[in-house]
Amino acid sequence: MTGKIEIEKKRLNIHHSKEAKSNTLVVLIHGLTGNHLQMHHFQTHLSDRYDTVSYDLSGRGDSDLQNAPADIHQHTEDLLQLLGKLDYGRFILVGYSMGGYIALEAASKMDAVEKVVLLDGGGEADENTSNLVLPSLGRLEKTFESVDAYREMMQSSYGALGVEWSPVMDRVVEHEVVQMDGAVRHKSDYALTKQDFESFYDYPHDDIYSKIDVPVLLIICTGAIKDDIPLFSEKGYDRMRSTVPSIESSTYDINHYEIVFNEQDALNREIDTFLEKE
């Protein structure tokens, strides 16, 4: 089921799967310029055992724009309000990229969170991260003659990163854009999205990590994005691994985009094992 939920001063677009009718809800939180479909493969895998929800962060997909100034804390407050609207007593948070920061901050503030899974997110961003991300935000300012033209650009970009194109990828990119005044443009606001990214560098890592008292599974992607450089360095997770009391981590030789856009059977098994532990 896909629909809108009203929270304070905005509406969020959610995709809620209730197939398992479980008491614990798995909440999947996408990355900086993504949308809820970015989490499709993981949501599909988990939906036979858990009720799940993915959603468009504010400023993405069919959710309302985030408020200015934008930052991770605003998205965390959105998530806490969203969870308060859903009829579940316990939550498992699965955060990818920027979603990892949001998941950790929400877990530090909410007793109902049981476990956290971080898909290459929540660590310390460095200069390489900025050099890789900021140029990619340029597409948010561009217009395209058609959805097909946008899709072709994204297919070329993602293909160079090892992403296997599929009907799911078609849905991902089509959900990112809107046709206005005879042209196609991204639904996200460039300036607000850039503010979201810049808030990675103001994130209070020590304060939040020290308040996480639930089990955490951290997945680190070591695959290169450009010039043998991953989006987040493995070293950038050192502080998290030394501060969060109950954390286990694994590295995968895939890049930051392959982890969500290609199906990951081995990683699914690791997540299953982690979630099944008492």
Q: What is the CATH superfamily label?
A: Alpha/Beta hydrolase fold, catalytic domain
CATH architecture: 3-Layer(aba) Sandwich
Assign the structural class, choosing from mainly alpha, mainly beta, alpha/beta, alpha+beta, or little secondary structure.
alpha/beta
Distance between the termini: 30 Å
Any idea what the radius of gyration is? 17 Å
Helix content: 25-40%
**Overall mean pLDDT score?**
97
What is the topology, as strand order, of the major beta sheet? 1-2-4-3-5-6-10-11
User: Number of DSSP strands?
Assistant: 11
**Which term fits the overall shape?**
globular
- Relative strand content: 15-25%
- Describe the sheet with the most strands: 8 strands, mixed
CATH level 3 topology: Rossmann fold
InterPro entries: AB_hydrolase_1, AB_hydrolase_fold, AB_hydrolase_sf
Protein name: Alpha/beta hydrolase
Keywords: Hydrolase
GO molecular function: hydrolase activity
Report on the structure:
InterPro entries: AB_hydrolase_1, AB_hydrolase_fold, AB_hydrolase_sf. This is Alpha/beta hydrolase. Belongs to the AB hydrolase superfamily. The protein is α/β, with parallel strands linked by helices and 278 residues long. It has a single domain (2-133, 197-276), classed as Rossmann fold. It contains 11 helices and 11 strands. The chain has an 8-stranded mixed β-sheet, sandwiched between helices. Strands 7-9-8 form a 3-stranded antiparallel β-sheet. The chain starts with a strand and ends with a helix.
